[in-house]
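Proteins fold. Shown next:

***
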Amino acid sequence: MAAKLGGQGGGKYAIGANADINVTPFVDILLVLLIVFMVSVPLATVAIKVDLPPAETPKEAPKTKPVYISIQQGGKVFLVDVPTDLSRLGADLNVALAPQGTPADQTVLIRADAPVKYEEFMGVVNQLQSDGFYKIGLISEDLG
């Protein structure tokens, strides 16, 4: 492979042209470059220093019972376990939330049965907003 000894022209020991590529030096160079890049890349990463404030334990809020609205199929509305309707919902919520502070600042939770129509659900949400309750949370249950 490396040399051709003998052949036509030039006598017994004439050396002809070699058309084969010797890949060993090429592989050596690639391996050296690979090692150089593997060593230099971790040094090139830039870290950003962030000064975070110290963690503080949150002040415990007073334990209060959550006030939630349940919507059943057919549009039946319950405030916790007491039946109510849309016309009395705001007044009943004000009475239920009065011991916990300003009623309009409290979060009202809503849960609905699966077959409840969207129209009935949005009717309750719209009534709550018209009564001044804008903090509304939805209760979902993972059945899977």
